[in-house]
Write a structure and sequence with these properties.
The complex is a heterodimer of chains A (192) and B (194).
Chain A: E1 3-16, E2 19-35, H1 47-68, E3 77-84, H2 90-97, H3 102-108, E4 118-122, E5 128-135, E6 146-151, E7 160-168
Helix pairs in contact in A: 1-2, 1-3
Chain B: E1 6-16, E2 28-38, H1 51-55, H2 57-70, E3 80-87, H3 93-97, H4 100-110, E4 120-124, E5 131-137, E6 148-152, E7 162-170
Chain lengths: 192, 194
């Protein structure tokens, strides 16, 4: 993996519409800018990117957790996304994200039963990447459907890929649209 | 005196390993702390806005510490700084100017070698507006390796009646700086310039 830079974001919402958010809503994101080994060329075998995805699951999980600044066991949700520079294909993002990134990410936060929600796109440097977030043990927890936006002005260059992992300490700032709550989950099947 | 009402904070850290050239042993780190606050003067012309500068001092100190913490907690590693503000569209550019004094002195109070003026920029803009915050050396403005800039922004801010306040700190000059000029090792540290 040829790593050029790492970007982390941590966001804390203390009030919304004049109402206190208690405890403050916190979420973090860590992104890596890497060289795309298959930029501009056809490759049938994408295993190099699959292995890179595994390494990034740990690296970005560690970075995002450090930025979030809480115990691993306090993390309530996660998400992942990739933005492929113009000389790459969507399948490169899929290779990074889907086969192997999730397991080491779950190890960092002490488990996670739910599918890691994901998004991918091809775009130019400075494109906005929306990284979805969802509850880590029960995908139907409605308060935790969320997302973070990332923009790196100089990435991805055409031969690069931005890979991002996001974590949430809480759900949205003032959730009030009902549905399954964090306290009600069974945590057996990753859904409820 | 208007109260400082913080809606949210956002801390961004970049760790730059290389940009296509030889990677230095220690990567460059650049941190930005942003705070989204209510603009107490939005919506109409207010002549005397100066008291708010004093009100912003504690927030400035908190944000300077957020930058230092994001860079590892040791203020002595800070080599560059800058500041900025984005004013929501119901405010005026002068409201952003309120940040010059409390933002700048908050950083200079927390960084020992900080004789140089803190470079700054500001604009009026909608939520999601990006701002390129200029960065120069903390102790000598002419250090050419440290002329830099960090792009920041908050996706959902500033709302029309809000301000986004920004402080930026860096641990090194540009990653492959090689255009000559004054270097950090040559700084006299007497006038904030050289």
């Amino acid at each position: 993996m040829k790593l050029r830079k790492i970007v982390t974001l941590v966001e804390e919402t203390r009030t919304e519409m004049g109402r206190e958010v208690s405890p403050p809503a916190r979420r973090s994101l860590a992104a890596a800018v890497i060289a795309n080994p298959f930029a501009g060329v056809w490759a049938e075998d994408l295993s190099e990117l699959i292995e890179t995805g595994e390494a990034l699951g740990k690296l970005l999980g560690d970075e995002a957790l450090a930025a979030l600044g809480c115990a691993a066991t306090d993390v309530e949700g996660y998400g992942k996304a990739a933005l492929v520079g113009e000389l790459g294909e969507l399948e490169h993002a899929a290779a990074l994200l889907h086969p192997k990134l999730g397991a080491p990410l779950r190890t960092v936060i002490g488990g996670g039963k739910a599918l890691v929600p994901s998004s991918k796109a091809i775009g130019r440097a400075g494109e906005i990447l929306d990284v979805p977030l969802g509850h880590k043990d029960a995908a139907y927890v409605r308060s935790h459907f969320d997302g973070m936006r990332l923009r790196i002005s100089d990435a991805p260059r055409p031969g690069e890929i931005v890979v991002a992992v996001a974590l949430q300490r809480t759900g949205r700032p003032l959730p009030r649209v009902g549905g399954l709550t964090h306290d009600e989950i069974e945590g057996a099947d990753g859904l409820r | 005196m208007p109260e400082v009402k913080v809606r949210k904070t956002l801390v961004q850290v970049e760790t730059i390993l290389h940009e296509g050239g030889p990677a230095p042993e220690v990567p460059q780190k650049r941190a930005a702390a942003m705070a989204v606050i209510e603009n107490p003067y939005a919506g109409g012309y207010v002549e005397d806005i100066q008291p708010f500068m004093k009100d912003l001092e504690p927030l400035g100190a908190e944000m300077a510490q957020m930058c230092i913490d994001a860079l590892g907690g040791d203020a002595s590693v800070i080599e560059g700084y800058g500041k900025g503000a984005i004013v929501g569209v119901n405010g005026e550019i002068e409201h952003g100017a309120l940040w010059h004094v409390p933002g700048g002195y908050a950083m200079r109070d927390s960084i020992e070698k900080s004789m140089a003026i803190v470079p700054s920029t500001k604009k009026v803009g909608a939520a999601g507006t990006r701002l390129d915050v200029p960065v120069t050396h903390t102790n000598a403005s002419y250090v050419r390796t440290h002329y830099d800039a960090v792009e920041v922004g908050v996706p959902d801010a500033p709302r029309p009646n809000e301000l986004v306040l920004v402080l930026v700190m860096t641990t090194a000059g540009r990653i492959h700086a090689r255009i000559g000029g004054l270097t950090k090792d040559q700084v006299k540290g007497e006038d904030g310039l050289r």
